């Protein structure tokens, strides 16, 4: 009787997790996002394949955590407090150059960076070396491309810090030493954090869980405060007050250094060079935040990582999409350079530059809309199953995608309202309106395409699953009708497969959209601000309000493009 | 063999859902929040108790939805688009009195209201009457107190519309008829929607799922746009430009009616009266939004509602908490009235009013902090199990709680930064700083207390579960060691019970905090704006920026208090 019971329990387990070839099993919750996610945790018993040591650890751990489960709540509260204090300080120092000096803000940041490094040190030296600290790894977390991106952006951020140090050293005789200390500390932090995330991004920490949760939210909030600072500095640098053509930062810069001159001749060059690298530093902070967040979600998580499949990147599958995409990027970069040069000239040249920029953007966005529509049609024709297994990395991907797209949505809708209310006369106005409408359409379509794509069963896994299901079909003949019919419908779907042309078209669409997003990232990230070159919205909303909308919305819009590139790459691999 | 297998399957099912006495079983996802929640869906087979018709419906429906599951994505996109367009129009008309007139905004709202009513009509007449439309009800959704609140606030909102109609009819001879049409349409909408939510709030819709999802997000976004409009109007009304003592709305009002006089004498009275009722209209929209959102989450959800337990409200359990709380509310209301009267007078009286207001708030917040700390200590002493069953209503509760608290957090931190940076000299400054610091502490503690409380096993259920577990203990003797030991630890925890004094203290704390939140809701909801009466932040951040921070943060802060009252009431019932 006992063997029969165990046999049946195993079968039940298999059935429960039938839809997911990669069983991800959660022992106890202990994770919360907006806390909205707290309730959707599966309480499945351990799969019989797992070694007995895991089972016992799980039991001890479940009991232990039931009584000390406040860690995630405490760490969430710490995160909110650091973030909002950081937000107040950063915006205070941005809008008020007298009362909160940049030095005070930098001291706050230095304290945060040092605390974070202390925790990282503690984690790598003490926690992670213990035997029972990390029994499981989440194979979805920290994929190679994310870690490679982190390394690349980390290196470029390191360059910014070098430039900053070189520049501010020239002012040391008459300015605060904090301005040199901050980039030094940040450079060390970049090394420490990149090493930490490179090694530990996949860890599901089982030891010192409460401390680890708090440490991870500290790291997360430090990265987000650094991101806020960088975004604010970049926005101030890029915001030109109309009719003056002098950016706010230049004015502030002039005001603060009016009596303090650089002791070497390279100051301005270093400063200017560092601004060109800012977009990479912004992306570095976001990459690090995303990886830290996934680690936080994975604390105490029990993942069964025995069934691993790998999806390989085979660029030769596609041709038309990448070629058109690369062409688009090249043409986009050329027009962008023309725009950057001409926009600073007199009125006629300026309008010409805007005209080219608008037309180029409309062409890009229209082509992207068209290809996304084709992709969505293919999805309707294609009857692949959806994957709903628990996966914090994908949840975060989707959440960030939708959240970040709101930034561009807001800018576009405010633009549309202003244009329609004032009556779009003149070709520049009409083009601007058309661009904004197309952008809303493109964002909606692309969000649909990516989210739908991320939740599809990977092609290769489907074939394996079909074989697997076939083998088990006879053995499980006694099971209830409902389960059997669901299984066979699944089997039918999989074994029929998908004609190769559908896969190919989807891959082409992904590749094209990916490159489209690259060019839409390059333009605003490197300083295209047609929003301020064009007077309608500024007149309609007043400069302060419009600058606030753009400076809050655009960083999210830029991040959205970058994030879409990553997500589309994953969809490309899946389909 | 077949009977053994079925028996085991049943046992497995029971074990899987052992922790939750009220099995909530999800057939297929089809729900998304920030989409972050999408991946946490349980794919458990149907419980054996369910009638066979349910099983077959589920099967058909699962297959059907696998192929047409884009409805939630489409409805989400519709929601985002309506919301952001609404946001642009509302803020455009608030900041720009020339280009977007209130009439244009009202026409947009009328269209939204009419479309929503059309869908509600379609749903009540066609969808909900079909046999297979609503097979399940979510007993967590739309509890009595929420529906009663909806009815009450709906009635008060109806009064506002009556007042508005009476007031604007007086201007009909020289002003747009849209101003009368809007409250008329809104009054009808209030009836239709309140009826709809009263009857259908618990529905888990199984028919026309895609259309229903879109209809529900339409209703959701309409309510949120109405909420935004009300909040903006209320904020403009309450924002006094410093040194003028004339509110912006009065100026705008005077400007727009400079040549148009009311044809009857009661215009100003009706207008003034309607402003006192605004807080209730704001709450009505939020209540309706919350209920609609839960309905949206429940579309296509399969809930096993056979095991129902009821928790009754027994106010005689507690004494000290409510008495102190009521005392606090009474004293608070008295000082609030003194504040409202004195704040409009000359400098000395004004400072006196501020002093009393600050001291009163500090006393309230300190007492709340103290009682929350006591509550948290009791939680540590009390070893009740946590509940992690899927429950959209609770997920929403927690998400809204944390989200709404950010509003007050932001105001407090910005205040702290301004006070510290300028050096808090003088008793008013020191009190303001102290209040802000205490507020941050109180928010953190209260969030912790409520979230922890909402996730505790209800007391009565624990006792029942203990008996139940006991009965099954021998029968399931053959089960694996892990499962058994987990079960017995659960049994031990429950059967030991909790000494009554702990329960009683928790209930006292809940009751006191509930009333504390009521008075903290009353003050800002009925127009206390010490943020604008006190010059430090205005000087520090400039008036525009500070007004933006307060006018965005405070509506969330007010909602937070109201929502805390509801959540604390639930915690009171559970503990």
UniProtKB/TrEMBL annotation, chains A, B:
Organism: Etheostoma spectabile (orangethroat darter)
GO cellular component: plasma membrane
Entry protein name: Otopetrin 2
Pfam families in UniProt: Otopetrin
Family: Belongs to the otopetrin family.
Signal peptide per UniProt: none
Subcellular location: Cell membrane
Highest taxon in the source lineage: Eukaryota
């Amino acid at each position: 009787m006992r063997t029969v019971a165990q046999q049946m329990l195993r079968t039940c387990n298999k059935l429960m997790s039938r839809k997911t070839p990669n069983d991800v099993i959660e022992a106890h919750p202990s994770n919360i996002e907006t806390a909205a996610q707290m309730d959707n945790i599966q309480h499945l018993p351990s799969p019989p394949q797992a070694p007995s040591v895991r089972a016992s650890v799980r039991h001890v751990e479940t009991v232990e955590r039931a009584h000390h489960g406040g860690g995630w709540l405490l760490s969430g509260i710490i995160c909110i407090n650091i973030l909002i204090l950081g937000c107040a300080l950063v915006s205070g120092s941005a809008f008020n150059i007298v009362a909160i000096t940049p030095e005070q803000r930098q001291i706050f940041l230095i304290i945060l960076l040092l605390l974070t490094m202390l925790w990282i040190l503690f984690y790598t030296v003490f926690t992670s070396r213990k035997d029972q600290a990390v029994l499981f790894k989440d194979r979805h977390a920290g994929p190679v491309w994310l870690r490679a991106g982190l390394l690349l952006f980390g290196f470029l951020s390191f360059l910014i810090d070098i430039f900053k140090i070189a520049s501010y050293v020239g002012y040391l005789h008459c300015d605060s030493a904090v301005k040199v200390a901050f980039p030094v500390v940040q450079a060390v932090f970049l090394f420490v954090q990149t090493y930490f995330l490179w090694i530990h991004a996949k860890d599901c920490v089982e030891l010192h869980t409460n401390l680890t949760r708090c440490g991870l939210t500290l790291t997360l909030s430090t990265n987000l405060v650094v991101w806020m600072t960088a975004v604010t500095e970049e926005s101030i640098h890029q915001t030109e007050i109309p009719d003056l053509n002098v950016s706010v930062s230049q004015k502030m810069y002039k005001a603060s250094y009016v009596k303090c001159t650089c002791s070497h001749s390279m100051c301005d060059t270093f400063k200017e060079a560092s601004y060109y690298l800012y977009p990479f530093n912004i992306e570095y902070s976001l990459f690090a935040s995303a990886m830290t967040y996934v680690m936080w979600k994975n604390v105490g998580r029990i993942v069964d990582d025995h069934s691993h499949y790998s999806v390989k990147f085979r660029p030769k599958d596609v041709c038309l999409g990448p070629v058109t995409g690369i062409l688009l990027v090249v043409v986009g970069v050329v027009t962008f350079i023309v725009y950057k040069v001409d926009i600073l000239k007199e009125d006629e040249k300026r309008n010409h530059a805007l005209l080219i920029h608008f037309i180029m953007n409309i062409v890009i966005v229209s082509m992207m809309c068209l290809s996304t529509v084709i992709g969505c049609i293919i999805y309707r024709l294609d009857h692949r199953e959806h994957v709903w297994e628990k996966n914090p990395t994908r949840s975060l991907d989707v959440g960030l995608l939708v959240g970040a797209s709101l930034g561009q949505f807001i800018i576009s809708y405010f633009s549309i309202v202003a244009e329609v209310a004032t009556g779009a006369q003149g070709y520049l106005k009409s083009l601007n309106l058309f661009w904004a409408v197309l952008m809303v359409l493109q964002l909606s379509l692309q969000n649909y395409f990516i989210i739908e794509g991320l939740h599809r069963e990977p092609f290769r896994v489907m074939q394996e699953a079909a074989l697997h299901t076939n083998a088990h079909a006879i053995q499980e003949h006694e099971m209830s009708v409902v389960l059997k019919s669901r299984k066979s419908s699944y089997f039918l779907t999989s074994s029929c497969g998908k004609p190769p042309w559908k896969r190919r078209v989807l891959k082409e669409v992904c590749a094209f959209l990916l490159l489209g997003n690259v060019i839409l990232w390059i333009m605003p990230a490197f300083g295209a601000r047609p929003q301020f070159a064009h007077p309608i919205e500024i007149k309609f909303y007043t400069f302060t309000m419009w600058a606030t909308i753009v400076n809050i919305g655009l960083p999210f819009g830029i991040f959205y493009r970058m994030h879409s590139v990553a997500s589309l790459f994953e969809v490309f691999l899946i389909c």
